[in-house]
Design brief:
Length: about 130
Amino acid sequence: MPGAKPLASAHQVYARLTKVRRARQEHFVIFCLNVRGGAIHRQLVSLGTLSATIVHPREIFYPAIVHNAASIILAHNHPSGDSSPSDEDIGMTQRLVAAGKILGIQVADHVIVAERGFTSLREANLMD
């Protein structure tokens, strides 16, 4: 898609989630990317509670399929202010990476944002 803005780093994801990183309940967002890494669609997939959100591969990959995405970036916030991934975050990411492989849609990263910073699971070597 011409004009799609590149989304090549976790810092760029963090910059695009200003309201989400300050939210007081968890938001789970995906960015759909074209083959050149340009963001072609952004979707709020789940709105959770203060400390949790429920996501299912069906809801994660539906927008990616509809928008013909080559890859996706997962992102969610931690209202606590600590962007460190929980064991649940890591396990969920690994399951979504596996689902993406089956569908042929790469999970490029999972970025956890908080008011005071972010953590990239890809950069932290916590993704397959």
